[in-house]
Amino acid sequence: MYKKKISFMLLLALMVILAACSGGGSSNSSGGASEADPSKNPAADRGNNIVVAVPSDPQSWDPIDTFLLDWSSVASSVFEGLVDRNLDLELQPGLAESWEFIDDVTVKFKLREGVTFHNGEPFNAEAVKFTFDRLLGDEGAKGPQQSNYTSIDSVEIVNDYEVIFHLNTPDPVLLTKLSGYGAVIVPPKYVQENTDEFFNDNPVGTGPFKMVEYKRDQYVKLEKNENYWKEGLPKLDGVTFRFIPEASTRLAELQTGKIDIMKRVEISQAQTVKDAPYIELKEVGTPTVFSLRFDPGQGIVDDKLVRQALNYAVDKEAIIDEILDGYGNPISTYQSDLSFGYNPDLEPYPYDPEKAKELLAEAGVPQGTELDLFIPGNDGNFKEIAQIIAYYFEEVGIKLNINNADPTTLTSELIPGGKAGHLYRQGWGGWTLDFDNTAYLMYAEGQHWNPSFSDPKVEELLKAERSTVDQNEREEIFMELTEVLYDLAPEINLYQEVALYGANERLENFQPPHDDRFRLEEVSVK
Amino acid sequence: MAQVQVMEKKKSTFQRSWNFIKKNPTGVLGMILTAASILAAIFASVISPYDYAKANLKDRLLPPSWADPLGESVYLLGADQVGRDLLSRIIHGAQISLMVGFMGVLIALVIGVFFGLISGYFGKWLDDFIMRAADIQLAFPFILLAIIVMSVLGTGMWKIIIILGITYWVGFARLIRGQVISLKEQEYIQAAKAIGGSNFTIIWKHILPNVMSSILVLGTMYIAEFILLEASLTFLGLGVDPTIPSWGGMLADSRNYTTTAWWTAVFPGIAIMLTVLGFNLLGDWLRDRFDPNLKM
Amino acid sequence: MFAYILRRLLHMIFVIFFISLLVFFSIRLTGDPAAVMFGAGEPTAEAIEALNERLGLNEPLYVQYGLFLKGMLMFDFGESFRSGASVATMIFERAGATLALALGGLVVAMLIAFPVGILSAVYRGKFIDFFGRIFSLIGISFPNFWLGIMLILIFSVTLGWLPASGYDGFSSLILPSVTLGLILSGILARLIRSSMLEVLNQQYISTARSKGIKEWKVVIKHAFRNALLPTVTFLGLQLGALLGGTVIIEQVFAWPGIGRLIVDAINQRDYPVIQGGVIFLAMIMVLVNLLVDISYSFIDPRIKAGKAGG
User: Fold this and answer.
1) Which of A79, A330, B188, C197 has a CB 3.0–4.6 Å from the CB of A205, allowing a cystine?
2) In this structure, is residue C234 part of a structural domain?
3) Total structural domains within chain C
4) CB of B58 less than 8 A from some CB of C
């Protein structure tokens, strides 16, 4: 029987190893991050260069080809727009020194002088015109960015350092749109002289860092732009972005000092990051919100009472406190508090299962009714939330079937096609920080993301909001719109995402971005 | 006298069992582990101490009762991410994993053995045709097939089983074919042919018994592999729904908890490991028993 | 033999052609690339039209397929929908990483499996046998992502010996190779043990023994050679796993291999990359399987390749 004993011992040994690994994180906690000796910091030998890990490679660096957050994480160091949205999300002069609205549909920009692209080309009015001609022309039509800028009719060159934007319709969010993505300025000669494919892999902008090497799906190396127009910046010599899809691997690299900044720390990893030496956890509210959206075209959820009832049935506060460990903020409509149009007077539906039961009874929904929920199969954290919601639903007599779906199929086929059950999980970035974009795409009839919701009042308010640039008027309309939407309850609004970043303590002035756009020019190392 | 005889008989039964265990330690260990997982699957609802399905936020990630410094936990193996008893989920998880393993292998085996036998035995164009089909199947990546099927038909346990079955028939077919080709050159098969035995008889009586050991070895190997592949699919976002307690799903969803709630990841891992070990040991042992060459 | 190889090459072309059909039409069932590429944007009908025009998706299917086949002959799989880069270039960029991982995994697997398999067979029923079997089973008892994460936790985080990820020199190859190798070695060691046992009990081995030939000489000379047959079969079978099925290991270790390229492409519905990647892997697989079949006839003279036909 000694053989059995041995196998038992092997198992035991295995468990000890596993336990040792798991203990590794927590045993270090006693050391305390702040008491650690900085000279032993494993990242110190990189000197004035830092490494940042992001989950995915956007594949193309051309600004008109992308909509990915990971693109903007890297590209914000390479490209710049006329307007700059800083880390506090305030708009300030970027490549344009100043601007002035001549009327609702005409804006004049005064451009910064003496700025050059990384390849030596001068930045001037011609570069601005070229950029927008390209974005709005045939070239841009092939990418996802053009549709964001259709309010721009043309760009007129006044002189070398002055341009006028002619709009075909008032656009209240023009300036924030000019701060990133499709509107960043590209060098005309460089783009024309090289192939598309070459520019995709070898982008050139005016930003604080220039791209010197790109290995697809491995890393990009950025080097300090010596001629950067902001005096004395950037402070770092170089930044390498590595693409590491798996969160536990990114964490391992952070713990061993192989990277300085980790994007997307999972909530389940937060404690480990806090406890590890030389590393700190940084949290920041994002514009991204997560909700269970109803498809009113499906069965009983076309009834407002049912949707409201299910809103009362779920204890969102408990979900935020327990599953998200507090890394999330309650929301009352499908937008974050960073969004223009956020209504601070609306409280999220309170947790009130009795009320939920009443409303369900009033709507004539029998006990034991089954509803289908679709979630992306790769989001471990949301699977937990979905199961808790199923529990809350059960408490009020509704059986919730959770369906995993292939993430791509869910967002590109099932949701737009109205095939994602009675409810589906949807996260929404709202990158313009204005409810206009979100509300229009979600609630206007016939929109891609809106399989079946329709309401005449909402439709009317959306039209009204789009026909004015008077921000006070728009805000009033949004307040009314949010109240109407709150009552109609087209979704169970769960939470605003709080993004977690892990950063090595040797970094100074690193502030995590609300909008994924790293700003590294002010960052230095101790 | 009579009484003594009964005593002796009892003793000899015991003695024989003891000898059996001593002679076949791996086989017995394999049987015990396999039987344990099968029994867990059958009697899951009877032996589970708690409800495996109902979430309970209060008990989220409670550690195992013996490792809980606060003494709040009543769960022997701790509670999972939504506060369910991990032990109950692991017990019920046996049902899912064994279902995926057994049914997947059954499908692969029936298809694969059939085509392997006729391919190897008849040769010629039939062999060519089947082996080309096998090549096509082999060269078509499993993950691609899984994503295509699941994006068109949706996810679910039976879809996983069918995808596994239709992907892995090739393993059986090629292995069996290789052996049949070897076997049919052997004298006793040639002799059986010479005295006019029908093809069916030869395959059934002379060839099939000889390839049985390989089928068993590969079958047990695949049961283990399928249990793990189900986990891989979960890792890629194509797993069974989260309410279903599958071991693979539990492991994939707890991979970021390794340092904060180790029990959610360690115990399902041990469950998988023991089951896989059991099937492999049992398969090996069966092979020794069945293979006539070894009874010398 | 020559005629046999020629015939097999013809079969190869048939297989590749069939796979091209399968992959071309099946990925078109999974959804519209334009919808994926525009993502959270607000594509107008014209924008989708323009994109489809650029991607060549407005052509009738048979024209698209014809172009795909035509390009394939020149190993030109078109350009990636996402990066605009040539698919052939993208594949060749990855070939090195894929090959390195496959070879690394194979070497680790053989280093473990041959000693374990042979020793367990020779000392059948003894302690070594039992220990060897358990040891070789550890690798296949955990899902590969789990094994990879555990190895990272032990060797990178806790011990600090090896890098956790990346494609940067020999040290970064070790952990992914060990993960892959452990998985393969479990199966390989069992197969070697089984076939060694079968051979060790056969008449001619007993004869050799009775002739007084030393035990180890018998093992190496007779038994080992015969045990190679199933091993080679196995390696041929596992080639798919080695080249394309390592996607999870590649993902865990941020390894830039072809498997990950294909899976990322599937998630983005990047048709040309999927098609190119699958065809490329298929070509290699079919070629290697041909080599495996041919090598049968050298390893086991009982199989006459030409006659066996397979």
Assistant:
1) A79
2) yes
3) 1
4) no
